[in-house]
Amino acid sequence: SIFSAYGRCSSRAGISSNFLERREFPSGKGYADIVFIPKSGCIKPAIVVELKWNKSAGAAIEQIKNKHYTDSLVSYNGDILLAGINYNKNNKKHDCR
What we know:
- With 97 residues, the chain is of the alpha+beta class.
- Helix content is 26%, strand content 40%.
- A 5-stranded mixed β-sheet has the order 1-2-3-4-5.
């Protein structure tokens, strides 16, 4: 699944050492698929990730914006990175934006 592929990548990238990870994070008008909140002392941006299946990475970014998924990070003072990831079942490729 896309979540298991993501899990393998995030553990290799050292994400767990710098971020608190929240899946299906209640935000704005729905649930963000994954939100990474920097741990204390980490100067990296928070990351809101929306995963899509046979859509587009752009559609994922639009959903983050339209459903105000960043609203629940109002107490976070740093930058917020939006990430849209789509998996295309036909060509078995991911695209990101």
